[in-house]
Amino acid sequence: MKIGIINVTGYTGVELARLLHQHPEVELSSVTGRSTAGQKLGEVFPHLADIHLTIEAELGKVELAFSAMPHKDSAQEVIPLINKGIRVVDISADFRLKDASEYQRWYGFSHPSPQLLKEAVYGLPELHRAQVASARLVANPGCYPTSAILALAPAVKAKLIGADIIIDSKSGISGSGRSLNLGSHYAEANEDTSAYALEGHRHLPEIAQELMGLNPQPPSITFVPHLVPMTRGILSTCYAPLAKKIGEKELKKLYSDFYKDEPFVRVTDAPPHTKHTWGSNICLVYPTIDPRTGRLIVISVIDNLLKGAAGQAIQNMNIMLGLPETTGLEALAIYP
Ligand SMILES: NC(=O)c1ccc[n+]([C@@H]2O[C@H](COP(=O)([O-])OP(=O)(O)OC[C@H]3O[C@@H](n4cnc5c(N)ncnc54)[C@H](OP(=O)(O)O)[C@@H]3O)[C@@H](O)[C@H]2O)c1
Questions:
Q1: What SS3 class is residue 101?
Q2: All domains of the chain, ordered by start, with CATH?
Q3: Fewer CB within 10 Å, N side or C side of the chain?
Q4: For a pocket test of ligand 1, which of 178, 201, 315 has the largest count of ligand atoms closer than 8 A to its C-beta?
Q5: Is 267 exposed, middle or buried, given 0-12, 13-18 or 19+ CB atoms closer than 10 A?
Q6: Ligand 1 centre and the CA of 96: distance in Å?
Q7: Mutate-to-test residue for ligand 1 from 15, 34, 236, 281, highest number of ligand atoms within 8 A of CB
Q8: Residue of 143, 152, 283, 306 marked active site
């Protein structure tokens, strides 16, 4: 099975290349880039020198492709591929929202294919595994939404929490991509922590869409992302008043039962660290109850480039190809 990557030069593209090279069942046969077209992959990324591919301007003949393009431009690459019968996992946001009008509001462009938007499957396997298996187009979830939805899904589905939800997320700098911007310069980001997008982050509609799929009552969500001085990782702390009484043991059981067959979600007995997931496709989830206020607190951690992007994309590819879901994704986290 020949696999391609559109835009191998971004952080998610380069991570896809590393993971696909190690994958025993597929062959990475074509990678594209814009400014780097014509150069050997190993010249641009020395750690990938064992992958003997030249970066192309156009994708070669493949059976399944990943798009790791920025939003808006990704759709332009994905639509012709789908029309040619090539299955796609899109890492950008271009096919995640079901309502086409949301793209104008949150991303500032009119969606070029509302029809394909309806057909695309939101690629969070823990919620949509069966649909992913037969999809032509999988919209890989955003990194913050992956951490937030996995933290909240069991409680929302059980109607344990109501409309009022707070998601406080911290992300490493690679979450904002490889393109240069002032905020990611060392002197700006090192020894600094800041909140951003308080007026509404683009990942908010995606989180709301998926939580409403579990409980149709429209949730009122406050989502505040923060940038912290680390390369990889997301930690989300989610808070919500409990709509019904539940004890710690019962809460732990609810979460453990919800994720009991999931290879990449683990319910922990202590608050997890981002470092516990560094380089692995695991999401660690820790639910508890604040004994003073009775409020639910759930902490989740992921590596934004693995379960938050390239790892989850390969998990989706495995499901689409009928392979064991963990193939090529068994690596444990790197520590320290
Ligand atoms: N970073 C994450 O943690 C993460 C997580 C989940 C999803 N995503 C999504 O994944 C996609 C890729 O993100 P990323 O972080 O990997 O990107 P990135 O590191 O910011 O990649 C940007 C690279 O893409 C190339 N590029 C920029 N605009 C382009 C265009 N119009 N056509 C072709 N190449 C272009 C640039 O290379 P040249 O200038 O050299 O061509 C640049 O190096 C985005 O849609 C992002 O939202 C990212």
A1: helix
A2: 2-119 (3.40.50.720), 143-304 (3.30.360.10)
A3: C
A4: 178
A5: buried
A6: 17
A7: 34
A8: 143
Place of tokens 């946001």: 93
Q: How much is the pTM?
A: 0.97
Tens of pLDDT, residues 254-277: 999 999 999 999 999 999 999 999
Cα-to-centroid distance, 10 and ligand 1 (Å) = 4
Strands in 121-122's sheet, in edge-to-edge order, are 55-56, 27-32, 2-6, 64-67, 87-90, 137-139, 121-122
Rounded CA gap, 100 and 109, in Å? 10
Beta-bridge partners for 312: none
Q: At what angle do helices 204-214 and 143-157 cross, to 10 degrees?
A: 20
State the residue for tokens 């470092």: 275
35 lines ligand 1 (CB under 6 A): yes
Question: Residues 38-51: pLDDT tens digits?
Answer: 999 999 999 999 99
C-alpha dihedral sign at 320, 328, 76, 58? negative
pLDDT, tens only, 272-285? 999 999 999 999 99
The verdict on whether 283 is a catalytic residue reads no
Structure tokens at 305: 């480039």
Cα–Cα dist 301/321, whole Å: 28
